[in-house]
Each structure stands twice: as C-alpha cells, then as structure tokens.
Amino acid sequence: MKYAENTQVSSERSRNEIERTLERYGASAFGYGWQNSSATVMFQMNGRQIRFIIHLPDKEQFKTTDTGRLRKQTAVHQAYEQAVRQQWRALALVVKAKLEAVESGISEFDQEFMAHIVLPNGQTVGQFMLPQVSEAYETGKMPKMLPMLTE
Known about the structure:
This protein is an alpha+beta fold. It has helices at about 10-25, 75-105, 110-115, 125-140, and strands at about 30-35, 40-45, 50-55. Strands 1-2-3 form a 3-stranded antiparallel beta sheet, with helices on one face. α1 packs parallel to α2. The protein is globular.
C-alpha cells in the first residue's frame, strides 16, 4: 500500500503545503516546475540549494485495469491524476518529516537532505555519489578521493 494512494488532496494543494512548510522552517527561496514526466521542487535553506525530482507515472500504464480491461479516456485521466496526487502527498510528507527531524535535533540539515543538495555543477550529491557507492560495493574498493583527477 502506498502512502496517500486514495488521497483527494489536489497536487496544487500539496505543492502549496510544501511551500508553506518550507517558509515556516526558514527557507529563503522556493520554486517548482515540470517537464514531460517529471516535476521538480527546489528550495534554498541553510546556505544550501535543494532539489527533489518526482518521476510522474506514465499515462500509458493507466489505459488498462489491473485485470487487463481497457479503460475509458475519462477513467484513464482519473487514475493518472490519482497517482500524481499520491506522489505530491508523499513529497509533502518527506519534506515535512525531514524538516521536523532537523528542528527536533534528531538529525542535522545536511544529513537529512544530503542526496538532494545541489552541487556547483548542477548535479545533486546523490547523482554524483551513487555511481561511486555502487562501484565500491561491486569492487570492494573505496573510490578515489577526487574521482575527476587521474593518477
């Protein structure tokens, strides 16, 4: 079961909730946008730029029911919109939980948002580090301290 899979809260309302939550916790900038099948939420806080990318579902997957029956176009649209609303509710929960963990002293800001911190080259820490983590597990060797430099 997915969190908020049956939510009736609109995507717009969830985005507004994320923005208000960020304001309440001290963010100095906020923005969002979408392109094709992804949406992006960005904000600035604690001297860091943070970016979350939501990969929205493919509309094609809603053309049939779980039993394989074809859906009418209106039903396809409704099922897709429900899945999008669920994604936005989940992001609102994640952002709120991370900020509260920091506020409560459970964690530190950089620890909570590490994978989503935007580096000077535009990549997030997660995009930069995950290939190196995978390689370390595959080879059993730690990555070079400065991977962009050759020996």
